[in-house]
Specification:
The longest helix is centred in the N-terminal third of the chain and has 32 residues, at 43-74. This protein has 221 residues and is mainly α. A three-stranded antiparallel beta sheet has the order 2-1-3. The protein is built from ten helices and three strands. The chain is globular and about 55 Å long. Helices cover 59% and strands 10% of the residues. Helix 2 packs antiparallel against helix 4. The chain has one domain: Iron/manganese superoxide dismutase, C-terminal domain (minor pseudopilin epsh fold).
């Protein structure tokens, strides 16, 4: 029994060391200034959204993961299960926003080119029809959430979906995220008040289609 207890203690110590050495999640830097997306998204919104809201998801994710590793080391399944909602919410918030910032560019807007445009025409009929459908789905999100253009690896086709709160697209639907539109109020309320359709219409003017195209290429591999 003594040797079993020593082995268990050793295993717990090893797991704790691995958890401690695990690199923490960090807030990604933006490749553009907070005011670079004006007049479509104000500098004040970008500053608060990135440095406050996204940073909070990152910090809470790190704290939750530490608690989860401790519960794992102790074999505390009850705590592991209890932490799942926080992992999903804060992990999803970090994943979603990390994609979102790269989906935007001060040199964005217009229409995509190449394979992405071909896929859009094939799956939606035209670029305009895709924009209209994604805009409608995104505006219709009840409460807080995201509208997404995703890639269905099984069918090889593009799909439009909406996710509630910070639910990550791939983790909840299996679709690989290509383009996301954040419709939490903190993403637009200071500038657009409660007129979500105006915000969604404006965001198309700063979509980074090069980034979306790169994501499609990676998803197809």
């Amino acid at each position: 029994m003594l040797s079993i207890s020593m082995c268990a203690a050793s295993l717990s110590h090893t797991i704790s060391k691995v958890a401690a050495s695990k690199q923490k999640h960090t807030l990604p830097d933006l490749t553009y200034d907070y005011g670079a997306l004006e007049p479509y998204v104000s500098a004040e919104i970008m500053q608060l959204h990135h440095s406050k809201h996204h940073a909070t998801y990152v910090n809470n994710l790190n704290v939750t993961e530490e608690k989860y590793q401790e519960a794992l080391a102790k074999g505390d399944v009850t705590t592991q299960v209890a932490l799942q909602p926080a992992l999903k919410f804060n992990g999803g918030g970090h994943i979603n926003h990390t994609i979102f910032w790269t989906n935007l560019s001060p040199n964005g807007g217009g229409e995509p080119q190449g394979e992405l445009m071909e896929a859009i025409k094939r799956d939606f009929g035209s670029f305009q029809k895709m924009k209209e459908k994604m805009s409608a789905v995104t505006v219709a999100v009840q409460g807080s959430g995201w509208g997404w253009l995703g890639f269905d690896k099984d069918s090889g086709r593009l799909r439009i979906a909406a996710c509630a709160n910070q639910d990550p697209l791939q983790g909840t639907t299996g679709l690989i995220p290509l383009l996301g539109i954040d419709v939490w109020e903190h993403a637009y309320y200071l500038q657009y008040k409660n007129v979500r359709p105006d915000y969604v219409k404006a965001i198309w003017s700063v979509v980074n289609w090069e980034n979306v195209s790169e994501r499609l290429q990676m998803a197809r591999k």
